Amino acid sequence: MNLMYNSTRNKSGQVTASQAILKGLAEDGGLFVPERIPALDISPASLADMSYQETAYAVMKLFLTDYTEEELKTCIQKAYDDKFDTKEIVPLREAGGMYYLELFHGATIAFKDMALSILPYLMTTAAKKNHEDHEIVILTATSGDTGKAALAGFADVPGTRIVVFYPKNGVSPVQEKQMVTQKGSNTCVIGIHGNFDDAQTGVKQLFSDKELGEELRRAGFCFSSANSINIGRLVPQIVYYVYAYGRLVKNGRIQAGEQMNVVVPTGNFGNILAAFYAKNMGLPIGKLICASNENKVLYDFFQTGAYDRNRDFILTSSPSMDILISSNLERLIYHAAGNDADKNASLMRELSKTGRYTVTEEMRMAMSDFSGGFSTEEQTFAEIRRVNEESSYVLDTHTAVASSVYYRVFSKDCGDVPAVIASTASPYKFARSVMSAIDPKYKDMEDFALIDELHTLSGVPIPRAIEEIRNAPVLHDIVIEKDDMKAAVKRFLMNDK
């Protein structure tokens, strides 16, 4: 029996998993959620002997029920192959008594690779299953990592095009260089004068523009999304928490059935929401610790029950977390409201109108699995130094936010329950901030000289993704005002029509 998907804003009209992946966003502006969270049908003990690919199938088959076994295994096999620089796909490294789940061994050295390696295969399979004959246009806003991972995944995939918007001056130099040097005749990268929330809001407006949608359909196109609002992004992220649990059992750190805690550096809320889904599938997870940087809208929400984006936007050394509108939080709000689409839609209207909403005490109780913490820039840099000095292990700035929050706020109260910290990016991606944190003498060095210095310091090979962009030519140099996004999309698509 198929697991169906509902919109978080509308009670009527269910879709299959493949239809939800193909659409990306519901027509009413809501996000697709499963009608129920399925139970994991394998024991915690059996996870210890499963490969990453086997774990992926065990999890994803429960959510993507209208894909055949052959279709799903083919997608997994193509996604999790030798593009990853380690056979494990996701190594679990122990340093200083904490466990860092290294999610950055893919083509773009960030955790988005884990989901965006498989999304193009899930999406093109979905198009065939649903007889979609229009060219799929992936429309994405990025705070730095999603963009490159999506570009790498969809570049030259037949039947698709991809447009990525990013905040000019709001991503790291390496992140920007990775995107603007992207090859592929079907790719388009556009900087905007604004921040990530401006880019994300603009993309949502394009999705909801019925006149634009109809115009593009007549021209042979249909929109879909590679952001974490797409359920095809969220489901693959559940996998690595299940896999991490199996690694802890395998190395004897816990007995099958014992708990682990999960700590996630959080911006758009998709990564920690995946851990919430894993817990509700029956995986023995204790605390879900949501770590914020100085843009601590999520920390304040879990402290007070009030979500308020009416505040200054702060540019930090962890740019992928510089977000005030956390789109995936809507899925949690929907679940906390008892899957009440009307209640959720009312809160989202309030957010759109006033920039804030407050949940009920009953809803706060439904979200009691979550704990929040935040790290200042000074605390984040101090954590990079501490871990390197004590364990000779180098964290990127985002992982350091999570590590700092856990070490300072939670570690003393967690007893012997191991903490799995989602390590979301390679330190090479943020070499300037990382090396400046370790020693101020590095702050004036050139970017790629810093990368060489990081290699000398850490002994970790320089990733292929970095070497490839050293001397790569810039292929995308468009920068626009945030109000010109619609025109820019039409120019890219209509030039060949």
Give an overview in words.
The chain has helices spanning 17-23, 52-63, 69-79, 112-116, 119-129, 146-154, 173-180, 196-208, 210-218, 231-250, 270-280, 297-304, 329-336, 341-354, 361-366, 377-391, 397-410, 431-438, 447-458, 464-467, 485-494; strands spanning 5-7, 10-15, 32-34, 92-95, 98-102, 135-141, 160-167, 187-193, 221-224, 260-265, 285-292, 306-308, 356-358, 370-374, 419-423, 478-481. By secondary structure, it is of the alpha/beta class. α11 links the parallel β10 (260-265) and β11.
TL;DR?
The chain is an alpha/beta fold and 497 residues long.
Which structural traits does this protein have?
alpha/beta, 21 helices, five-stranded parallel β-sheet, single chain, 497 residues
